[in-house]
Design brief:
This protein folds into three domains: about 240 residues, Tetratricopeptide repeat domain (Serine Threonine Protein Phosphatase 5, Tetratricopeptide repeat); about 180 residues, no CATH class; about 100 residues. It is mostly helical and about 625 residues long. About 75% of the residues lie in helices and about 0% in strands. The relative contact order is 0.04.
C-alpha cells in the first residue's frame, strides 16, 4: 500500500478543519428539531480520518522495519507519510499513536456533546490506550491533559467524584512536571492535522496550553468542593479566575459572579482583604460587559431585552455579595467588642485602637503577598474601588457608619432589580440584610435615642411586609419576620427603659413615657405570640413536641412573652394581676417542657435557669397583689 502523498495529507487536514468548523461553528446554527445535525456530520469526517490513519499505520510500520521505503522526497519539510515533521522528544511511532489518540479524543467529545456518554467514554479510554504507547513529550502533553480533563468532567457528571479527582489530579501533575522539565509551549492537538504553513505561533501555543491547564484547575475546584474540601476548592477557584484574566479567556459576567461568590467564602473565614479584592474585581470586570440598555431599547429588541435583564440581574447579585461583606464585617467587629452582656466594651475598644497601626502595616504586607486579580488595564480600577471600603474591623461609630453606608448603597442597587413584585423571597432577604445592617450599626451608637431610631427604621421596613405576606405560601419567611420584629420592639423597649431610669432621679415617669413603653412592650409580645401561633395546627393546638428547627425560637419566644407581661406598667391592679398570671404560665411552660424533654435543656440553658427562678418568685408576688386587692376592697 502506497504512503500518503503531500496532496493526500493536505486533503486529510482539510477534512479535519471542516470537522472542527462543523462542531464549533455550524452546530450553533442547527435547528431545534435537529440539534446535533452538524456534530453528526463532523463525526463522520472524524471516522474517515481515523480509518485513513489506521490504513497507513501498517504501511509506515513496514517502512520503519526496512521492508518498504518511501520512493519520494518529503515536500516542504513534511514527512511523506503524512504524519508531519517530527518534534524533539518522541519517536515517529509515538507521534502516530498520539494522532490516532487525538482522533479518538475528538470522537469521544463528539459523542458526549450528543449525549452518548458511554460511547464517548469508550473513545476517550481508547485515546488513553494510544497514549500508553508513547512517553509524555512536547508533541503529546496537551493531549494527555485534555483527555484527562474530559474524563474528569464525565465522571464528575455521574457523581463519581473520586474517579474524576484521579483523572484531574493526574492532568495537573503532568502539566507541572512538563513545565518544570521543559517549559516551552508544546504542540497543540489541532496541529496534528495542520500543514506546515498553518502551524501555530509560539504565543498561541502557550495560550492554548495554559488554557487547558486552567480548565484542569477549574474542574478540580468543583471536585474539591463536592468532596467537602472547601479551602482547597477556594484556592483552585481563585487561581482559575486569575489565570482566566491573564489569558483574556473569560465571559465578564460569568467571571464576575464567580469572583463575587468566592468572596463569600473568604468572608466566612474572616479574610476580609481577600473578600474585598474579589468583590472589587467582580464589580470592575462586570462593568466590561457594557452599559445596561435603556428600557426603550430593550422593548424594541428581544436580544436587547435579554441582555438588559442579564446585566441587571448579575450586577444585582454582585451587589448582594457586597451587602454580605459589609454586614459580616460589622457583625464580626461587634463580636470582637462585646462585653459579657452584649454591650460595647470601651476598654477593649481602646486596646484595639492602640494596636491598629500595627494591624494596618500588616494589612499592607499581606496585600502585597495576596493573590491579586487584574491586568494593567483593570488593576488600577480594582485598587481604586477597594479604597472606598475598609477591610479592617471598624472600632467606633464613625468607622462603622462608613461600612454601613457602603452596604446601604448596595441594598438600593440590589432592590432595583429584585423588586417585591416577581422576586418576593429575594426582596425580603435584602430587606432583612438592610435591617441587620442597622442593627449592627446601632451597637456602635452611644446615644440611646439615636440607637432607638435605628431600630425604628428596621420596624418601618419589615412590619408592612410581614403583615401583607400570604401566610399559606410564605409561612417560614413570616415566622422569621415576626421573630425579628418581636426582638426589635423588645430592644427598643429596653432602650426606652434605660432612658427612663436615667431620668428617674430627677423626675418621675410621665404618662407619655409610660404609654410609649407599654406600646413597645405589647408590640413585642404580640409578634412573639404571632410566631407561637404560627406553630399551631389548623385546629389551633400547640404541638406537644417541638421540631428541632423551631425548638429554641419557640422556647425563647415563650420566655420573652413571660418577661414582657411582667414588665407592663399598669395602674389597675386587676390588669397587673392578669399580666403576672400570663407571665407565670409562660415561665412554667419553659420549665415543664424541658422537664418532659431533657434534650431541649441544652438549647435554652440561660432562659431555663431564669424561668425556674421566676416560677418560684412570681407566685409570691401574685399572692401579695391579691392580698392588697382584697384589703382595698
Amino acid at each position: 500500500m502506497a504512503s500518503l502523498s503531500s496532496a493526500e495529507w493536505r486533503a486529510l487536514c482539510d477534512k479535519f478543519t471542516t470537522a472542527q468548523n462543523l462542531s464549533e461553528v455550524e452546530s450553533r446554527k442547527d435547528p431545534a428539531n435537529d440539534p446535533f445535525r452538524s456534530k453528526y456530520k463532523a463525526r463522520e469526517l472524524l471516522r474517515e480520518i481515523y480509518c485513513a490513519l489506521k490504513s497507513f499505520e501498517t504501511t509506515e510500520g513496514e517502512n520503519e522495519s526496512g521492508d518498504q521505503r518511501p520512493t519520494e522526497q518529503p515536500v516542504d519539510g513534511e514527512r511523506e507519510d503524512g504524519f508531519g515533521r517530527g518534534f524533539n522528544g518522541d519517536s515517529p511511532a509515538g507521534l502516530r499513536a498520539a494522532k490516532l489518540g487525538a482522533v479518538e479524543y475528538y470522537l469521544g467529545v463528539n459523542h458526549i456533546e450528543t449525549e452518548e456518554l458511554s460511547a464517548g467514554q469508550e473513545h476517550l479510554m481508547n485515546c488513553m490506550k494510544q497514549l500508553e504507547k508513547c512517553s509524555v513529550s512536547s508533541e503529546n502533553v496537551s493531549l494527555y491533559i485534555h483527555v484527562r480533563n474530559q474524563l474528569g468532567i464525565l465522571w464528575a457528571g455521574r457523581d463519581e467524584t473520586e474517579k474524576a479527582q484521579g483523572f484531574l489530579e493526574t492532568a495537573e501533575s503532568i502539566y507541572q512536571r512538563y513545565m518544570k522539565e521543559e517549559g516551552s509551549p508544546p504542540m497543540d492537538m489541532t496541529e496534528y492535522f495542520t500543514t506546515e504553513e498553518n502551524q501555530l505561533t509560539h504565543q498561541e501555543r502557550t495560550k492554548r496550553f495554559e488554557l487547558a491547564y486552567t480548565h484542569t484547575m477549574y474542574y478540580l475546584a468543583q471536585v474539591y468542593k463536592n468532596l467537602g474540601e472547601i479551602e482547597r476548592a477556594a484556592t483552585y477557584c481563585h487561581s482559575t479566575l486569575q489565570r482566566q484574566l491573564l489569558l483574556n479567556q473569560y465571559n465578564p459576567l460569568e467571571w464576575a459572579l464567580n469572583a463575587a461568590t468566592l468572596s463569600q467564602y473568604y468572608i466566612t473565614k474572616g479574610r476580609y482583604m481577600e473578600g474585598r479584592h474579589c468583590l472589587s474585581a467582580a464589580t470592575v470586570i462586570a462593568g466590561l460587559a457594557g452599559e445596561v440598555p435603556s428600557e426603550a431599547a430593550a422593548q424594541e429588541s428581544e436580544t436587547e431585552r435579554e441582555r438588559r435583564d442579564q446585566l441587571r440581574q448579575k450586577r444585582a447579585e454582585i451587589a448582594r455579595c457586597w451587602i454580605k461583606y459589609c454586614l459580616n464585617l460589622l457583625q464580626d467587629a461587634e463580636k470582637l467588642l462585646q462585653d459579657n452582656i452584649g454591650e460595647l466594651d470601651t476598654e477593649r475598644q481602646e486596646e484595639l485602637k492602640r494596636a491598629r497601626r500595627g494591624e494596618e502595616e500588616a494589612e499592607e504586607k499581606d496585600r502585597k503577598s495576596a493573590l491579586l486579580f487584574g491586568s494593567e488595564d483593570t488593576f488600577d480600577s480594582i485598587a481604586s474601588l477597594e479604597e472606598k471600603v475598609r477591610c479592617l474591623f471598624p472600632l467606633d461609630f464613625t468607622e462603622a457608619r462608613a461600612v454601613f453606608l457602603v452596604g446601604q448603597t448596595y441594598v438600593t442597587q440590589a432592590k432595583e432589580y429584585f423588586e417585591i413584585d416577581g422576586y418576593v423571597t429575594d426582596h425580603i432577604e435584602i430587606l432583612q440584610d438592610h435591617s441587620a445592617l442597622f442593627k449592627a450599626l446601632a451597637f456602635f451608637e452611644e446615644d440611646l435615642e439615636r440607637r432607638c431610631k435605628m431600630h425604628k427604621r428596621r420596624i418601618d421596613m419589615l412590619e408592612p411586609i410581614c403583615n401583607d405576606l400570604n401566610a399559606q405560601y410564605y409561612l417560614l419567611i413570616r415566622r422569621q419576620l415576626m421573630f425579628e420584629l418581636a426582638e426589635t420592639y423588645n430592644e427598643m423597649m429596653d432602650l426606652k427603659l434605660s432612658l427612663a431610669n436615667r431620668q428617674a432621679d430627677t423626675q418621675p415617669l410621665d404618662n407619655h413615657t409610660i404609654k410609649k413603653f407599654n406600646h413597645l412592650c405589647s408590640s413585642s409580645a404580640k409578634y412573639f405570640q404571632m410566631f407561637l401561633d404560627s406553630l399551631c395546627s389548623p385546629e389551633g393546638k400547640f404541638p406537644e413536641r417541638l421540631e428541632e428547627e423551631v425548638l429554641r425560637p419557640a422556647l425563647v419566644a415563650r420566655f420573652r412573652v413571660a418577661r414582657l407581661h411582667s414588665r407592663l406598667i399598669c395602674s389597675v391592679p386587676s390588669a397587673q394581676l392578669d399580666n403576672l398570671n400570663k407571665s407565670l404560665d409562660n415561665y412554667k411552660y419553659v420549665v415543664e417542657y424541658c422537664e418532659a424533654h431533657p434534650e431541649a435543656v441544652a438549647a435554652v440553658e440561660t432562659e431555663l435557669e431564669l424561668s425556674q427562678e421566676m416560677v418560684g418568685l412570681l407566685p409570691i408576688k401574685i399572692n401579695r397583689l391579691k392580698a392588697r386587692m382584697a384589703t382595698n376592697n
